């Protein structure tokens, strides 16, 4: 057995394990009781897909997939941030954090103070 | 012989990273409180990603591609704490029963008998 085929078996097995873990996190995002669980599982799915793309770039020997992984990292971070920024101002906030940062001085009804 | 030694190191670090991700997923399923689940998610973001990228860097050798993977780790280590911070901010804002599970600093000091210098 050559080294190349050994690498292919290793990376293929890692991709299969990652697909199982991503399926498990998808189940968590469906059954998660609170919004925090759902956003957390989306974040973890993003991290695992980044690892998958990076492994795939070595598996297929395509260098541009590393760039794709880099862009995916930025978009995954941005999705969590945007979901948070959308969610916080539309909820009665305890800390006043969302009101101060995201609504820029607008008064929010139902504020607990 | 040298390529096989490199392959063994790659396999070791790849399996270590996979174990990190698996422990993160297990923690997300098994822990009972959201803050604990965030901690388990952070393990996958830092430990798992670092060891996967280390394995790929060892497997591919030092070139432009491995530099990109290193940049990916640096970027992920910078952004993962920020997203965890925002998630805990959401939890603090929306969970009405948060202080059934979380102690404030004063309560913790009173229970432990420690004196915190502020």
Attribute tags:
A: 113 residues, mainly alpha, 4 helices, B: 118 residues
Provide an overview of this structure.
- The complex is a heterodimer of chains A (113) and B (118).
- Chain A is mainly α and 113 residues long.
- Chain A has one domain (3-102).
- Chain A is 74% helix and 0% strand.
- Chain A has helices at residues 3-31, 35-59, 64-87, 97-102.
- In chain A, helix 1 (3-31) packs antiparallel against helix 2 and helix 2 runs antiparallel to helix 3.
- Chain A starts with a helix and ends in an 11-residue tail after the last helix.
- The mean pLDDT of chain A is 82.
- The longest helix of chain B is centred in the C-terminal third of the chain and has 31 residues, at 64-94.
- With 118 residues, chain B is an all-alpha fold.
- At the A-B interface, helix 1, helix 2 and helix 3 of A face helix 1, helix 2 and helix 3 of B.
List the helices and strands and how they pair.
The complex is a heterodimer of chains A (113) and B (118).
Chain A lengths: L2 H29 L3 H25 L4 H24 L9 H6 L11
Helix pairs in contact in A: 1-2, 2-3
Chain B lengths: L1 H29 L3 H27 L3 H31 L10 H8 L6
Helix pairs in contact in B: 1-2, 2-3
Regions with little confidence, pLDDT below 50 for 5+ residues of chain B: none
Give the total of beta strands of chain A: 0
Average residue pLDDT of chain B:
87
Residue fraction in strands of chain B: under 5%
Mean pLDDT of chain A: 82
Helix content of chain B: over 70%
Give the helix proportion of chain A (percent range). over 70%
Outline:
Chain A is mostly helical. Chain A has four helices and no strands.
